[in-house]
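Section 5.1 Outputs to date
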Amino acid sequence: MRSAELACDELAVLRKRLDRVASSMTGAAVAIRGRRQVGKSRLVQEFCDASGAPYFFFTATKGASAVESVSWFAGELKDSGLPNDPETVPTAGVGSWPDAFRILASALPDRPAIVVVDELPWLAEQDDLFDGALQTAWDRMLCTRPVLLLLLGSDLHMMERLTAYDRPFYGRADNMVLGPLNPAETGDALGLDAADAIDAHLVSGGLPGIIRAWPHGTPALDFIHDECADPASPLFGVPEAALLAEFPSPDLARRVLEAIGGGDRTHADIAATAGSRAGALPSGTLSPLLARLVREKRVLALDQPLSTQAGKPGLYRVADSNLRLYLAALRGAAEQVRRGRPGPAWRLVERRWTSWRGRAVEPLIRESLEVAAAAGHLPWSQVEAVGGWWNRRFDPEVDLVGADRAPVASTVHFAGSVKWLADAFDRRDLHALRRAAAEVPGYAESETSLAVVSLSGITDGLDLGANDLVWRPADVVAAWR
C-alpha cells in the first residue's frame, strides 16, 4: 500500500519507460532503490500485472550461493510467462551469470517485455563478477531487444554503487528512489488528524507494510494496544524482518545498533554498552563500524550540533523511527505477546511511550522545517539547514537551530524548542528557551528569532516576537503537502 496519488505517479514513470521500449523496440533499464517495506516489490508487481506485457520476476535469496541463484534464475525463467516456448529454456548445466543472461536473451519475445530482478544487492554479494556480467549482457544482448529491465534493491549504498561512475553499469539505467510515506500521506491513508498522523508516522516509519494492517481512523496508541494481542502483527514482524535481513547474526554491529536503540547516543556510551567484560569497545573498532552503519547501511543517523562554531559530540540515532521504537520497546513487548501476555506487553510500551515520542519527533520536526524552508514557507528565506545544538555537558540542549548551512553556519536565523506534551508551551518554557538559545554560537538576541513547535500550542497571552514562529501539529503535516 502506498498513497493512491503517489502510486499513480510511480506507475506512470514505469509506464513511460515501457512505452519508450515499445516505440523504439530497444531496451531500457531502471534501478529502483528504497528501504525495506516501502513497497518496491508490490509496486513493480502491480505494474507488471497492469502492463499487459509478458514478464519475468526473479527475487534473489540472501545467503544462497551463486550457483544456487543461477540455477533458480533459469528454473523460474522457464516457469514464467516470458518465453514463447518454455521447453527451449535449459535448466541444466547453467553454471554462471553469463550463461543465465544468454538464456534470458534467447527467451525474450519479439514484443515488449519486462524483466525484474529483486534484491539485486544479494546477487552482487554472492558473486563479485555479477555486476560485470550484467553490464556485458546488457550491452551485447539485451539493450537492443524490446525489454524493460527493472533492478530492485533495499541496500541503498549498493544500489547507488550499481550505477556509480566507476561501476560497470554506469550510464545504463535510470535511477528511481521509493521512500516511505511522509506524515501527510500517512495521515491521509489512515484518515487521521495532524497530531495522530504524526504519531502514526513515528510508529510505522511510513512503511506500507505496517500501514496496510492499521484500521482506518485508529490513533497510534489504540493500534499498538490492539496489536499486542496478535503475535503475528506486522507491527512486530516488519522491524524484526528488517533487523534479520541486515544483521542475520548477533555480531558486533548488531550490539552497537541495539545500544543506540536502547538510548545511548554518544560514542563513549555506545562503546561502554556494546563492550564486553574486557571493557568498552576500543575507538579503533567502534569508529569505523559506526561510519559504515551511517554511510553504507544507512541504519544510523549522526546528528552534529549546528551553530557558527564547530561543536562536539555528534549524537547517533536509529534512522528509521519504526526500528527505533522496536529496539526501545516493541521488541520487549513482542516477547511478552509471544508468551500470551498482551497486558504486560501493552504496559511496557505505554510506560516508555511519552519519553520515546518526545525524542523521536525531534528529527521529524527538523526535517519538516527544512522542507518548509526549501518551499519558501518560513519567514527566513536563507534557511537551508535545521538541526539542534548542545555542548559537551548537554547543558543546555537546544532542540531547533535554523541556519544557512550545516554543520558550521555563517548565520543562525532562529533557535527553538520542541514541546510534544499534553500541556501547552508556557511562560516558563519560553524563559528556558531564551536562556538556552543565548548560549548557541551565532545567536544574537536582537537579530535571531525564536521558533516553538508544540503539540498543544502555546498558552493564551504568551508574548513572542513578531518575527518568531509557532508551529502546531497541523503545520508540521502541512509542510509535506
